[in-house]
Write a structure and sequence with these properties.
CATH topology of the largest domain: D-Maltodextrin-Binding Protein, domain 2
Strand order of the largest sheet: 4-3-5-12-6
Helix content: 40-55%
Order of helices and strands: HHHEEHEHEHEEEHEHEHEHEEH
Radius of gyration: 25 Å
Length: 307
């Protein structure tokens, strides 16, 4: 029977493309690594690695086996993590995802306190779009995710953290009323939930939207506004980190705009739910202490918030 050890040898060799480095990575001798790969090839009945005195090549079938091996090893690591988390939910790896319009503006402030509160927890972070994050949590690729509501979260547990309002960003070179009258509204590209949330936050009849331009990030939007090419809506979370400072942008609070609701989501079957709630408290506290948050995220949404 093939073993995870043999799989790890093959993956290490495919990534290092050198027997000496692959053996060191696996903490074995080179002869042990070579013997393990030969045993794997004999068991499968196919050639996985072509070796010459000068080169090393992973065969076509070998590349396919490497991909399957990676999935097997990832699955084994998840099993180990699950067992460790069940024994002690505050130890082991924690894979936290966040959308790009929240992560860069909240996590740098919150992560030091998370590490102090949970010293035996290793936090790994990823930035992805909301749909990808939810898929990652559902599949087990991620443990929890930081998203903005409203968004359909299916069967996942949802912990509201705080509400996040908006500022209107217009060029400093134009008076506010002139900017609002003459410039188009610029938004993030489709896929960013902030696009839908921003459109639902205000009375869109008061703005003329530029449907031919969609930005990939908030810094891009801010740069476009600073050049006088339009105006946009920025979440308070980003504004209060100084993201628009020195960019030639005027920021006007929109207290009547319907805020988005920042929340954590995780699988209901996890054994670490209480730990995740405590992490949520740290995030909520970081947002409040940084002056980012309004309320606790549990307010009922007004009809205008429907997305």
């Amino acid at each position: 029977m093939i073993t995870l050890r043999q799989m790890s040898f093959l993956v290490a060799l495919a990534e290092e493309m050198n027997f000496t480095r692959a053996a060191a990575r696996c903490h074995v001798t080179q002869p042990t690594l070579s013997a393990g790969l030969r045993e794997l090839e004999d068991r499968l009945g196919v050639k996985l690695v072509e070796r010459t005195s000068r080169s090393l090549l992973i065969t076509e079938v070998g590349e396919q086996v490497v991909e399957e091996a990676r999935r097997l090893l990832d699955g084994a690591r998840r099993i180990e993590t699950l067992a460790k988390a069940h024994l002690n939910p505050e130890e082991g790896d924690l894979r936290l995802g966040a959308i790009p319009t929240i992560g860069p503006y909240l996590l740098p402030r919150a992560i030091p306190e998370i590490r102090e509160t949970f010293p035996h927890l290793r936090v790994f972070m990823r930035e992805e779009m909301t749909e990808s994050l939810l898929e990652g949590v559902e599949s087990g690729r991620l443990d929890l995710a930081l998203i903005a509501l409203p968004f359909e979260t299916g069967a996942l547990a949802t912990e509201p953290l705080f509400t996040d309002g908006y500022h209107l960003a217009t060029p400093e070179s134009l008076p506010l009323e002139e900017a609002r009258r003459e410039l188009d509204l610029l938004l993030l590209e489709r896929g960013h939930c902030l696009q839908r949330h921003a459109l639902a936050a205000v009375d869109t009849s008061a703005f003329r939207r530029n449907a031919h331009f969609e930005a990939t990030s908030l810094p891009t939007l801010i740069a476009m506004v600073g050049e006088g090419l339009g105006m946009t809506l920025l979440p308070d979370l980003a504004v209060r980190t100084g993201v628009a400072e020195g960019q030639g942008v005027r920021l006007t609070p929109l207290p009547d705009a319907c805020p988005r609701r920042v929340a954590l989501v995780w699988r209901r079957t996890t054994s670490r739910a209480e730990t995740f709630r405590r992490i949520g408290e740290v995030l909520r506290r970081s947002a409040r202490d940084g002056g980012f948050a309004r309320g606790n995220g549990r307010e009922r949404a007004a009809p205008a918030c429907t997305v």
